[in-house]
Design brief:
The relative contact order is 0.22. The longest helix is centred in the C-terminal third of the chain and has 23 residues, at 155-177. Strands 1, 2, 3, 4, 5, 6, 7 and 8 form an 8-stranded antiparallel beta sheet that branches. The chain has helices spanning 29-37, 42-45, 84-87, 155-177, 198-213; strands at 16-19, 23-25, 64-66, 69-79, 94-104, 108-115, 121-132, 135-145. The protein has one domain (16-213): Naphthalene 1,2-dioxygenase Alpha Subunit, Chain A, domain 1. Helices cover 26% and strands 29% of the residues.
Length: 214
Amino acid sequence: MTDLFPDPDDDDRDYVGAWLPPVRTPVSAGVVADNFLDVAHFPFVHVKTFGATDEKLVERYEVTVEEFGCRSVQDQWFDNPADPGVLSGERPLRQRRRATYVYRAPFQLMLRLEELDAGAVKTILFFAQPESLTSTRVYTKMLLHGIGGVADPGPEVVAGEVAFEEAVLAEDLELQHKMRLPGLPLRMRDELHVRADLLGVHLRRVLAEFREKA
């Protein structure tokens, strides 16, 4: 077994936490985790939220192996329509962010998003609870700092961020509803992977090792 993630910013009073309502999706927990770690689908799946539709090339990135898990730090382009600096014309819509992906077996994930232009930080804790090969319960917690241009975002800003993250999650769920794969293959020869799938490849390797030692 592996321990649950600690709240990564829980000891910093400047971070405000909020849980999203739990949701259920008709795919296995492995597929949910694979979707979360897939960095190539943003321009295609998240066109209504943050996906930069003309940024379809995934730059080469590295993955660090950890005990029953892995992590990757990547700089990405994204659209940030909720940034007050965008609304005032101070900053462009297309901005840079540093995304840190952390995975722990079997189905814990964390994403820390540092907006390099706007200065805001959003951390998302993501827990997938397996129910069957065709059902997974998803729990999501957000930790926010600097959102809306203030260090300690108020209730309205937090509510807006929760609604936005629910919209992002809804786009992923819509994709998952179209999938016909009953589970996540763990043997590399069962699928064709490209360079952008490096996090997903590590997910499969870690899960296979975890299954053997469980």
